Amino acid sequence: MRKTFCKAFLCTVLLAGMASCAKTAQGPSPLIAQAERLNGTLGALAEESPMYLQTISVDYDNAELIVDIEFADTAVHVSGYSDALVQYVVAQYLKAHPGENLDVVLNTLSQEKGSLKIELSDAHGETKDCSIGATRLKKLYQLKPMELNYNEVKTNVSDILEARCPQLAAQYKAESAEFSISGGFAQYTFTFARPTAYSQLNQASLRGRYLKPLKEHYEDFGACRTIIEELLGSLSIDGYRYIYTSKGGNDISAAIPWSMIN
Q1: Mean pLDDT of the chain
Q2: Which residue, of 21, 34, 85, 250, has the greatest Cβ tally within 10 A?
Q3: For residues 203-242, b (16+ Cβ closer than 10 Å) or e, as one string?
Q4: How, if at all, do strands 239-246 and 185-192 pair?
């Protein structure tokens, strides 16, 4: 009996020792190095987009890859960003950066049953957090845009663009401004009290009124410009259209495709 107990005790000690050795051999999570890499890459993206982004930092903690994004652009209100929109943009980023590093991130998060946490904050003190589990993260990489809550994302982007209407109406002395996505364009329709408010304009001069501000606006996005243009393009938005209308007057409109803005 004593001999059997000793053997059992010895086996237990050996197994414990093997488990201890396996844990040591496993070493630190590969996500620690990936977080450091992403911290450098995304930190540089923020530095190259100073009018749009304040900072981006990436950290790893307890099977969670944390991306902290702070916006500098006062037009940004992160409380208006849906989880669907955040996931859609993450999917865009993943698809644009395939390769060994992405494989390590996705596979390690799966092994650790971890998640990606996106923490957003803006210049108004608003915050938005979005946690994406490893299984969902893999799907974001695999699925097509139309399979990623496409209609919800398009509605959210439309709401964000529509929020500028009061400011634009006041800026151009219109009674009101309305937004819609129509015919492949992000369309702003300005209604004036009298047609004389814009009778001196034609299509070319109306286009000229908005082309320079649009160019400057997109230049302010810095290195994030491509990400934003690709987002809008994936939602079948090919540029902007501006319409001036009034009771009893003729409408004039001007479209500005991406080729003009770029």
Answers
A1: 91
A2: 85
A3: eeebbeebbeebeeebebbbebbeeebebbebbebbbbbb
A4: parallel
Distance CA 132, CA 119 (A): 11
AA identity, residue 44: A
Q: Residue 120 in contact with residue 113, Cβ under 8 Å? A: no
The DSSP result for 122-171, as a single string, is: -TTS-EEEEEEEHHHHHHHHHS-GGGSSHHHHHHHHHHHHHTTHHHHHHH
Say which amino acid occupies 133: G
Q: Which long-range contacts (CB under 8 A, 24 or more apart) does 94-101 make?
A: 94/137, 94/140, 94/141, 95/141, 96/230, 101/34, 101/37
Would you say the C-alpha torsion 77, 83, 85, 90 has a positive or negative sign? positive
Bridge partners of residue 185, in order along the sequence: 182
Tell me whether residue 59 is exposed, middle or buried, using C-beta atoms within 10 angstroms of its C-beta: 0 to 12, 13 to 18, 19 or more.
middle
Give tens-digit pLDDT for 188-202: 999 999 999 999 999
Q: What is the DSSP letter of 193?
A: S
